[in-house]
Amino acid sequence: MALRYLSAKLAQQIDDELMSAAGAFSLDQLMELAGLACAQALAKAYGADKYPRVLVCCGPGNQGGDGLVAARHLSMFGYKPTIYMPKPGSKDIYQRLHTQCKNMSISTLPEDEQSLRTALKSSDVVLDAIFGFSFKGPIRAPFDAALPLLSASGLPIVSVDIPSGWDVEAGNEAGVGLNPDVLVSLTAPKEGVRLFRGQHFLGGRFVPRTLEEKFQLNLPAYPGCEQIVDITDSEVPQKL
């Protein structure tokens, strides 16, 4: 059976169940596993020998938290990540993840637009962890300045879960979102990325069999001990 694509409502429901008393996962656990999957996907697509300088762009929500975890793992993988946060998150978990990056001597850029312009000139690849599946337009400041700069940089972009600026169900219908080269869908791909045609990984090895069966996700087998599986050539299903 074909891999299921998720609506915003269904994606939120699965997240809620994962962190419910029945699912028993904590947000910290899910972020750690998601961020590790994103770091593995970037490493698979862009090796540290040719693309060592990674600009990790983090939004203020859980998506940004995934990016911070990925930055820490990329540093351990031999990359030289730099963090850019147009608007830093204020929650305790976000602050702790940022502290973990600081403890790895990962630098964080100032929040101004010029710092981003300068950093893009000395980066090899961008990890986009700005907006998640709960994003609803329009794109507001300071993100409305950051996204066009990322698009115009010419650098390869790896997006986390859904490209920033895309609607979770309508995709890049408004034409204002990023157009990444690589996408790392988490748990299961979202409705809005059906037309994505770059390299597509799935990272969600944490999904228990009970939830996979309940929501008929039809997830592919993950190879060996990998946290990701390449679904680039998977058949895109019709809407359920």
From TrEMBL:
Residues the entry annotates as binding K(+): Q63, D128, S164
Binding note for cofactor: Binds 1 potassium ion per subunit.
Binding-site list for (6S)-NADPHX: N62, Q63, G64, G65, D66, G132, F133, S134, F135, K136, G137, P138, D161
MF (Gene Ontology): metal ion binding; NAD(P)HX epimerase activity; nucleotide binding
Span of domain YjeF N-terminal: 11-219
EC number: 5.1.99.6
Main enzyme class: isomerase
Signal peptide coordinates: none
Keyword list, A-Z: Cytoplasm, Isomerase, Metal-binding, Mitochondrion, NAD, NADP, Nucleotide-binding, Potassium
Catalysed transformations (reactions): (6R)-NADPHX = (6S)-NADPHX; (6R)-NADHX = (6S)-NADHX
Required cofactor names: K(+)
Predominant location: cytoplasm
Compartmental location: Cytoplasm; Mitochondrion
Gene Ontology CC annotations of this record: mitochondrion
Role description: Catalyzes the epimerization of the S- and R-forms of NAD(P)HX, a damaged form of NAD(P)H that is a result of enzymatic or heat-dependent hydration. This is a prerequisite for the S-specific NAD(P)H-hydrate dehydratase to allow the repair of both epimers of NAD(P)HX.
Xref: NCBIfam families: yjeF_nterm
Family label: Belongs to the NnrE/AIBP family.
Protein name: NAD(P)H-hydrate epimerase
Native source organism of the sequence: Mycena alexandri
Higher taxonomy: Eukaryota, Fungi, Dikarya, Basidiomycota, Agaricomycotina
